[in-house]
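Customer escalation, tier 2.

The customer says the design service returned an amino acid string that "doesn't look like it belongs to this structure." They asked us to rerun it and document both sides in this ticket. The original structure tokens are below, unchanged.
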């Protein structure tokens, strides 16, 4: 897949990202609504009708992130049946656009206030023989607050939502052989991902 940023200098990345977001089939408001409703649904959830999340049980960030990965596509599929769906195979992005896979979107979540991480494989070049999903394409990223064991009454919230386009070359794996994480540089995060929701700036951004 050809990079939309190919042969363009860094100072033009933000403009290209805005164009990519504008051409995405989902409106920014729809994405934000799906993320926030998913999060509120998680906070209302009871396990076996006994353990209330946020009251009796306080899941770790990885579990909260997994819940978001599952729920966001479900919310969008309900709004757009026949167009959007959850992934059904390892080669599909988390959020599948049925009419055209070009717009299928990978979801990344993090309890870090600003940054997003992937597993180490995201720093590796895709192979045409690989059974894994392509690392290039649209990304929806969500930063959320985690539960505070010292303050059980604290209700975590969604902090930031971004939409944009990343490639495997944007991800940098840890150099240590035991490293299990890949990250993107701040300049990539701020220019290839468009901030569409920021709780500190009043919510949805136009």
């Amino acid at each position: 897949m050809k990079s939309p940023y190919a042969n363009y200098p860094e100072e033009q990345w933000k403009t290209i990202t805005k164009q990519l977001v504008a051409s995405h089939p989902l409106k920014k408001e729809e994405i934000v609504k799906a993320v926030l409703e998913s999060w509120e649904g998680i906070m209302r959830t009871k396990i076996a009708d006994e353990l209330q999340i946020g009251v009796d049980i306080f899941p770790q960030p990885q579990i909260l992130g997994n819940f978001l990965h599952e729920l966001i596509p479900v919310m969008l599929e309900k709004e757009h049946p026949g167009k959007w769906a959850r992934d059904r195979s390892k080669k599909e992005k988390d959020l599948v656009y049925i009419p055209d896979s070009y717009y299928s979107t990978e979801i990344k979540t993090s309890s870090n206030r600003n940054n997003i991480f992937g597993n180490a494989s995201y720093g590796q070049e895709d192979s045409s023989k690989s059974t894994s999903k392509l690392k290039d394409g649209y990304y929806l990223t969500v930063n959320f607050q985690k539960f505070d064991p010292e303050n059980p009454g604290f209700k975590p919230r969604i902090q930031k939502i971004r939409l944009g386009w990343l490639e495997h070359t944007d991800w940098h794996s840890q150099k240590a052989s035991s490293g299990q994480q890949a990250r993107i540089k701040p300049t990539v995060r701020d220019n290839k991902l468009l901030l569409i929701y920021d709780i500190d700036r009043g919510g949805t951004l136009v």
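Tier 2 assessment: The sequence is consistent with the input. The radius of gyration is 17 Å. The domain at 10-204 is CATH 3.40.600 (ECO RV Endonuclease; Chain A). Sent an explanation to the customer and offered a walkthrough call.
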